[in-house]
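Take a record.
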Amino acid sequence: MRWLLLIILLTGCSALPLAPPGPQVDRVPAGTLDAVTARTSLAALPVAAPGRLDGYVRDCSDGKACVFGQPWFDTDGDGCDQRSQVLARDLTEVERKPGRCGVQAGNLDDPYTGTRVSGTSKIQIDHVVPLAEMWRSGAAAWAPEQRLAAANDLRNLVAVSGKVNQSKSDKTPDEWMPPNAGYACSYGRIYVTVKAAYALSVAPAERAALEQALTTCG
């Protein structure tokens, strides 16, 4: 160990080499574009500076504007809200509430971190394209019904650990990518799928980050 530290000091290196990225994780919602189509779709998206967040209010409590509608609204009318549908889709060893579709227990192999999370209280549902970003890139001009549908589109919803979801917040790919580098391709594909489906614009830095993510696809 001493000789290794001596080499670092003599060469001016400040850190040890990073470990290579883990194996590629290919777990995406149904309807996600393949890598080739995602690259083509990304190239076709309009490029524009992000719009303002004026008027964006996600909160639905106490008469707030609630611009994307009630969270996890059952848009397909099957009697099961979108959060429960995503949990049932993404978790293993799922236990449902007696007589209901709600998920009360299960395990998640979190694609964002590459770790296993047990217990639904530690799991959140991420909008891969954040709702704030949707608002900035075109959704501000939509009818309320279209915003409600987009906010609950299963193609944009992924179950992840609560901690990593909080760290992402409303960040775009030029500001944040999943810590698990093996998920970069899948994340980029999902993101482009949603942007293309709703004809949303991309900022130059956002587009560059997505192009980089898609280069990791096999």
Summary: The longest strand covers residues 103-109. Confidence is low (pLDDT under 50) at residues 1-21. The CA atoms of residues 105 and 126 lie 18 Å apart. The first helix runs from residue 2 to 11.
